[in-house]
UniProtKB/TrEMBL annotation, chain A:
Name of protein: Type 1 periplasmic binding fold superfamily protein
Keyword Signal: yes
Stretch forming the signal peptide: 1-24
Top-level lineage group: Bacteria
Keyword terms, alphabetized: Signal
Automatic annotation (TrEMBL), chain B:
UniProt entry tagged with the keyword Ribonucleoprotein: no
PROSITE patterns (UniProt xref): TONB_DEPENDENT_REC_3
Organism: Algoriphagus ratkowskyi
GO cellular component: cell outer membrane
UniProt-recorded Gene Ontology molecular function terms: siderophore uptake transmembrane transporter activity
Annotated ranges, domain TonB-dependent receptor-like beta-barrel: 359-737
Domain of life: Bacteria
Topological category with respect to the lipid bilayer: Multi-pass membrane protein
Lipid biosynthesis found in the keyword field: no
Residues annotated as domain TonB-dependent receptor plug: 122-224
Name assigned to this protein: Iron complex outermembrane receptor protein
Annotated InterPro entries: Beta-barrel_TonB (IPR000531), Beta-barrel_TonB_sf (IPR036942), CarboxyPept-like_regulatory (IPR008969), Plug_dom (IPR012910), Plug_dom_sf (IPR037066), TonB-dep_rcpt-like (IPR039426)
């Protein structure tokens, strides 16, 4: 019986040890790193030879709460002038973790691409978009947006979708207005619809 | 002699004969079980000295000696290694019934075999087990898949690598899984959280289909799954078993090695070590590969035990380690993404074969250690102590940007301590029972650095339960009743944004059961069990708040939820004939305050897109259904089997159905046996057909309608070779023979993909 007595002692020691070491840790604040709280579209007019003219102006979509039920994002109306061509840059920001996501998208350019949909491009098209990120990758952080001279409408919607982990070589994926973007795989990181009004 | 006296004489004679015939129609029936653990003893020898009649007990320990006349008899009962019993019986009318408990002979006699202290399931509830040949055929499958072989058990799965067992429509925290006697405590609340257990560690997997809260503690509402290794050897032995399995679909390789040994020097000392490894790559559905569906598993278990006459002690450790990929296409960004793939019915890309496991993926490690001992206070009283320690570490990785891609977005560490202290008493008279106290303590911590607000808070839980069960056995009849009281305290803490939210919650409950088992005849058994059960709400049901990626859903918990309370009445009729085996189970299971995830019909709009909002609600529910399993030997060579189950789950508050309840299913097959006679090694081919109906009992809301009915054909060939002392089993299986495209209602990934296509498996088992 000696061995079993020893085993009982070991068991008791094990029990008391684990019981004291078994308590949950105090919680810590986690800043949601994946969250996108602010998307800013910056427009800068381009002249016929492609040089920047005048001052830039921007429009923002923001959702400070991140994932919180009951709040809806605040989306500004994009105001553009007929017949003009703009350089459009997109800035993506996480105000919760104070993090510039634009840089991350640029760094992982091969896995990200913006698509520009909505009535402004498709059903009542008065806008046309060209990727202009520089380099070989089509991303859409920087592009050329042209407004028609005399469109039949002066307001429409511009839906901006950011796809992550898509197959960029999928047929049609290089078209910025590719409506069947889901077929290229991946998932949506952003899906924002801006109202557009023409002056 | 005149006619009258002649008639009278005939009358008297016949009367006398009649009386005598009646008197000699009596019988002695009994049941023989181990004194120590109530396990039935098969092949005990019963002899009625005066009548010179004998019987041998069957596998349930039952025996009958018929055609006895009125009188006093001496019955002797003998079984190898056990003290014989001599009993004097006064047989007056009808049938005399008695249960005999045999006590093990004292240790020390060289010839006596001391058997291990394996505690049988002594419940009177419906029980089905997977062992022997059926278990051998299931090797290489995960626990959920293996258990589908038992009627009434199905799976709730997430793709082809994650499957959770479902008993009578209930899964996750409504059933319990016991790993060698310890309740498995992982993060079982999640639909995509597979049980952290390696089926290779078991030599028998038992499913208890009744409510067993009293015996096993809260949450054992729908049933209990017991994953039990073989008892440790108590004498000198050395046995090794090797399993090698290869599967064509996913190019799966699986190896398992078990070594069991017993000491020569120290009588009663035995050990076992076991290890298994599994690797598979992308699974192929008819026409395409499912991207990122590989699995990598590494499991270990070991135990050492010592048993002597009065004392027994066993130490056990098991490690489960798994890394598995989640189908790339199932990770949708928002509701429109989800709708697009549902409409397409399968991934947009064909994929290709790859072993690599990338994000999204899960990585789970589960350690379980236990120490168990018992002490025989006296011949009929046994004191038991069991301590279990578990550490579960679950990491879930999402597709993320930058450095975050390397960080888990869910990183949970769960510690669990369980202590059981109980006494068993068994007497030579009719009563036996268990009284005990059970203590569970748990601590859950979110490991910082995920960059995501935790889905569930950090928490501490303590649960104390007191229980008592008594069983009355008399021959073919067993009646059992039990009572248990539990108290549970949960305290939680978590930051949502910058705000600290804490909660302290108490739950308590009284549960009880009563059950009975009657051997109508040696072949036919009926049992019935009525048990109440309860389940306190889970932490995710109380506090979930956040985005559930694959489902494009925001799930919101409710901290005011109350405990679920259920009553399960289950009846089973079992027939074990020479050629026929039948099992029929029917149950009725009303539940009050059943917790379920309900779509609110509202959507949540963010910069990321739109999501459905779900909330946890409670309603009264009624579950009921039937299971059926039968087999029949048409000839010595040809046999057939048929299994089926139907389960209904209604929300009785608004007369609707709950989601993710298995649809009607049936499985039948025909086997041809090439073996010469019953004693020769297995050499058998089986063709089987699985039929699964469309789920017509649709819930009010689902993001996609239930998939259509399907039929699958499977082929299996099993051959055993006896090589001197060694044994070799060869198995060849073809699953989904015709490469049928199908979707199962109980697979959450039916939204994204078809199920697995044809899979050819080669299974080798070598015992030496």
């Amino acid at each position: 019986m000696k061995t079993s007595n020893k085993l009982y002692l070991i068991a008791l020691a094990l029990v008391s040890f684990t019981f004291t070491s078994c308590e949950s840790e105090d919680p810590v604040i986690e800043n949601d790193g994946e969250l996108i709280t602010d998307v800013t579209l910056t427009f800068h007019e381009l002249d016929a030879s492609g040089n920047l003219v005048g001052d830039s102006f921007d429009f923002t979509a923001s959702d400070a709460e991140g994932i919180e039920i009951g709040t809806t994002p605040n989306i500004e109306t994009v105001m553009l002038e007929k017949g003009k061509t703009y350089q459009m840059t997109i800035d993506v920001f996480n105000s919760v973790a104070n993090e510039d996501i634009t840089e991350e998208i640029k760094a992982e350019g091969e896995a990200h691409q913006f698509y520009f949909l909505g009535s402004a491009f498709n059903s009542s098209p008065f806008l046309s978009y060209q990727y202009n990120d520089g380099g070989s990758e089509l991303i859409g952080l920087k592009g050329k947006l042209t407004v028609q001279q005399s469109p039949g409408f002066n307001n429409a919607n511009m839906q901006i979708i950011l796809r992550h982990d898509l197959d960029k070589s999928f047929p049609g994926a290089s078209n910025p207005n590719f409506e069947e973007y889901v077929k290229a795989g991946g998932e949506s990181d952003l899906d924002i619809t801006f109202p557009v009004v023409l002056k | 002699m005149n006619l009258k006296t002649g008639i009278l004489l005939v009358l008297i004679l016949s009367l006398g004969f009649k009386v005598q015939a009646q008197d000699c129609n009596l019988s002695i029936r009994g049941k023989i079980i181990h004194l120590e653990n109530n396990e039935p003893i098969e092949a005990a020898y019963i002899w009625v000295i005066e009548a010179e009649e004998g019987a041998v007990s069957d596998q349930n320990g039952n025996f009958t000696v018929r055609n006895l006349c009125k009188g006093t008899y001496t019955v002797t009962i003998q079984y190898l290694g056990h003290k014989g019993i001599k009993d004097t019986i006064l047989l007056e009318s009808g049938t005399f019934t008695k249960t005999y408990r045999l006590e093990e002979e004292a240790l020390g006699l060289q010839s006596v075999e001391v058997h291990g202290h394996r505690d049988a399931v002594t419940t009177t509830t419906a029980v089905s087990a997977l062992y022997g040949e059926a278990l051998l055929e299931s090797r290489g499958e995960n626990l959920g898949e293996s258990l589908r072989r038992i009627s009434g058990v199905s799976t709730f799965s997430t793709g082809n690598s994650i499957s959770k067992p479902v008993i009578h429509g209930m899964h996750s925290n409504r059933i319990m899984i016991m790993n060698n006697g310890i309740r498995l405590e992982g993060q079982q609340w999640g639909a995509e959280h597979a049980p952290e257990i390696d089926p290779f560690l078991a030599d028998e997997i038992t499913v208890v289909k009744g409510a067993e809260t009293v015996r096993y503690g809260p949450e054992a509402m729908g049933g209990v799954i017991l994953v039990n290794p073989a008892p440790l050897p108590t004498k000198k032995t050395s046995k090794t078993s090797l399993n090698l399995i290869a599967g064509s679909n996913g190019r799966m390789g699986n190896i398992n090695l078990v070594h069991v040994g017993g000491s020569d020097k120290i009588k009663g000392l035995g050990y076992r070590v076991q290890g298994s490894a599994k690797r598979s790559g992308n699974v192929k559905s008819p026409g395409y590969f499912q991207r990122n569906t590989g699995v990598s598993e590494l499991n270990l278990s070991s135990s050492v035990g010592y048993s002597a006459k009065k004392i027994g002690i066993e130490a056990y450790y098991s490690l489960f380690q798994s890394e598995l990929g989640i189908l790339t296409d199932a990770h949708t960004g928002n509701l429109s993404d989800l709708e697009a793939i549902i409409e397409n019915g399968r991934p947009f890309t064909d994929g290709e074969f790859d072993y690599a496991i990338i994000n999204p993926k899960q990585r789970v490690t589960h350690h379980l250690a236990k120490l168990k001992s018992h002490y025989h206070i006296s011949e009929s009283w046994k004191l038991n102590f069991q301590y279990g320690f578990q550490l579960n570490h679950r990491q879930e990785f999402d597709k993320r940007r930058g450095d975050l891609n390397e960080n888990a977005s869910l990183d949970l560490e769960l510690f669990t301590n369980t202590i059981d202290l109980y006494v068993n008493h068994t007497h030579e008279n009719e009563f036996s029972g268990t009284w005990g106290i059970n203590f569970i303590q748990q601590a859950n911590t979110n490991i910082p650095g995920t960059g995501v607000t935790p889905l569930i808070p950090n928490y501490d839980m303590a649960n104390v339960g007191f229980y008592a069960m008594e069983k009355y056995s008399k021959g073919p009849l067993e009646v059992e009743a039990g009572l248990r009281y539990d108290f549970r305290n949960v305290s939680t803490a978590r930051y949502i944004g910058q705000e600290l939210r804490t909660a302290k919650l108490d739950y308590q409950n009284l549960s009880a059961f009563i059950g009975g088992l009657y051997h109508i005849s040696p072949d036919l058994t009926f049992n019935s069990n009525l048990g109440s059960a309860w389940r306190p709400p889970n932490v995710n049901e109380l506090f979930s708040e956040g985005l559930h990626h694959g489902a494009a859903a925001v799930e919101i918990g409710n901290s005011d939820l109350e405990s679920e309370k259920s009553l399960k009445w289950i009846n089973e009729l079992q027939y074990d004939g020479k050629r026929t085996h039948l099992e029929f189970t029917a149950y009725l299971n009303p539940i009050s305050d059943y917790i379920y995830l309900n779509p609110t019909g509202e959507v949540f709009v963010s910069l990321r897109g739109t999501f459905n909002i779900y909330e946890y609600l409670q309603a009264n529910a009624l579950f009921y259904g039937f299971d059926f399993a039968g087999s029949y030997e048409f000839t010595d060579r040809i046999s057939g089997y048929l299994k089926g189950s139907i389960v209904q789950a209604k929300n009785t508050d608004n007369d609707s159905y709950f989601p993710f309840i298995p649809s009607n299913r049936m499985d039948w097959g025909i086997s041809y046996d090439f073996a010469k006679d019953a004693g020769s090694p297995t050499n058998k081919i089986t063709v089987s057909n699985v039929l699964v109906a469309k789920q017509n009992r649709e819930p009010a809301f689902d993001i996609a309608p239930p998939p259509p009915a399907y039929a699958l054909f499977n082929l299996s060939y099993q051959k055993q070779f006896n090589l001197a002392d060694d044994k070799l089993n060869l198995g060849l299986q073809v699953q989904n023979l015709f490469n049928t495209s199908y979707k199962d209602y109980m697979n959450r990934f039916r939204y994204f993909t078809y199920d697995m296509g044809t899979n050819i498996l080669l299974k080798i088992n070598y015992e030496f």
